[in-house]
Amino acid sequence: MTATDTHCPYCALQCGMTLTPEIPRVRLEPRDFPVNKGGLCAKGFSAADLLDHRDRLLTPLVRKGHGLREASWDEAFDRIVEAIHQAQTTYGRDSVGAFGGGGLTNEKAYALGKFVRVSLRSSSIDYNGRFCMSSAATAANRSLGIDRGLPFPLEDVAGANTVLIVGANPAEAMPPSMQYLEGTRFIVVDPRRTKTAAGAHLHLQPLPGTDLALANGLLHIAIREGYVDADYIERRTTGFEAVAQAVTAYWPGRVERMTGVPEGRLRHVARMLATEGPAMILTARGAEQHSNGTDTAQAYLNLALALGLVGKPFSGYGTITGQGNGQGGREHGQKADQLPGYRKLDDPAAREHVAKVWGIDPDELPGPGRSAYEMLTDDRLKVLLVLASNIAVSAPNSNRIRRQLEKLDFLVVSDIFLSETAELADVVLPAAQWAEEEGTMTNLEGRVLRRKRALPPPPDVRTDLEVLAELSRRLGREESSDPRTVFEELRRASAGGIADYAGITYERIEREDGIFWPCPAEDHPGTPRLFADSFPTPTGKARLLPVVHQDPAEMPDKAFPYVLTTGRNMQHYQSGNQTRRVKALTVALPEPRAEIHPDLARRHGIADGDLVELRSRRGAAVLRARLTDGIRPDTVFAPFHWPGANALTNPALDPHSRMPAFKACAVTITLHKEG
Ligand code: SF4
């Protein structure tokens, strides 16, 4: 049996693994790839369980009354195309749209964006990365001129001395990455004492939604203590004076009152970042998934730039991507406002370039569409195609999302299992899995990797590229379903853009253990490290921008007195559609646990293991309580891998990125009486 080197189907680390088809099952072994160096987490080790899982969708399903029945591909396609025609004839082109995912390969993300804009001629497309990376991406684009999660290889983290990690829990989300923090002194900012925080040199526990104030407070101290790098600021940045002025209001005593982090700790962290370098600042969803997420990411960028960290060895600012192809997924055109190569849809030159590759007139390209939550809750959307996303569980205010999905004239879901979203569909398409098709992924470092086919898909299962090509054909346009052909076109479409893949080939990826974009030509080595000499902004300098703290869109009050924050557990991934079906993972963590401080629990008569009801203005969820003094007494934590947590979350949107406020909303807590 042939062994195939490929990558994990889950998170953005994209650990290397080898698959060997054996009878009766596929053998999965870790592989010594530069990011994981032979390590895998429990999710990766058990990933082959997905391939022959008994819940696997093996044939198309179509709605019949209240249920779904098996159907042929022909019938499924007929129904979809008829629904598209009917909606577009009656309501216009934008009434039909698509929702993609950060788990799609680059080829599929590219093909989906092209399908919507060219075959459907609709502007209605966005993807779940809007709920994930969009705030950090917006901040990086406006400040650094480019958005690549880590602008350096992961191995550079190991060379840092001090690492400030804000709102991330890599020890649970991507355990093999912790090897890079071993020799560093890392500081964790998180309202919970997570596994990562427990191993940190320092743990700061701010109130959720106050990360921006904390960053401004650190910069205030850095300026007062003379820690900032005046020469770097002068040579490499613009906007420092306005930022310095803005942070005068963030004196340590005030920041302590706003965040709950003692003044002494703030001073300690500012000193470490400035004097115990090389230093790095890494943010993630805990800081970014807020109604002020973009400004919060900007505040940490301001701090990193003022300290002169960005573009120096083992130093800098980065954001830790979560989803497997969260990075590539936002570069190739499935985002409402973007075209391949990270081009802007409202930029005439970008439209012209991409339209030429696609063989259409630039005027035929629709304009930017609505962001994810706005599109999903807009009654003008009548037909929706969902790929690789379980929005009935993962979108904010999920009860409202479910109602909207039920209201659609027609919902199509392509997935490997009957997810909570697929259960609502009119047509469900059985999709090929990660190990059954070819494609590329771009990991959290901006390293483009090859995901390879180790075995064929089951007989009546199709790849998303095949589905999109067939739908296009029935809509009057020929498209390729071959991943390599699609990638060759993606290379041309991205050429000259910010995320330039022109020089990346399948063969090079294979030979060179992945290639970092931008890579504009086949003789270009790729770009593992950005910003050494300049920034891709009009001035060549990074922009500091003044940002001020704003309370979360929903604050605790008498009626809803506590803050809910959401996040991950080690054993599960995203909405849990895959990991909730893997025995080893569900045995280790069978159900969601609400983390509650013992003082708060006592006040409500709650004991460890009791069922509790969390209620927000939007919905309620019942979870089992896990009492821990590792969480703030005013804050409750719920994981988002099961239905429930997002029934509570607040869909208030960041004005810049349109990111919903997943990480802070107001809730009540009560003991749940069973029966
Ligand atoms: Fe897969 Fe991420 Fe675990 Fe690596 S860390 S094995 S990529 S889930």
TrEMBL record:
InterPro entries: Asp_de-COase-like_dom_sf (IPR009010), MoPterin_dinucl-bd_dom (IPR006657), Mopterin_OxRdtase (IPR006656), Mopterin_OxRdtase_4Fe-4S_dom (IPR006963), Mopterin_OxRdtase_prok_CS (IPR006655), Prok_molybdopt-oxidoreductase (IPR050123). Residues 1-53 form the 4Fe-4S Mo/W bis-MGD-type domain. Pfam families: Molybdop_Fe4S4, Molybdopterin, Molydop_binding. SUPFAM superfamilies: ADC-like, Formate dehydrogenase/DMSO reductase, domains 1-3. CDD domains: MopB_CT_Fdh-Nap-like. Keywords: 4Fe-4S, Iron, Iron-sulfur, Metal-binding. SMART domains: Molybdop_Fe4S4 (SM00926). PROSITE patterns: MOLYBDOPTERIN_PROK_3. It comes from the Bacteria. This is Molybdopterin oxidoreductase family protein. It comes from Paractinoplanes lichenicola.
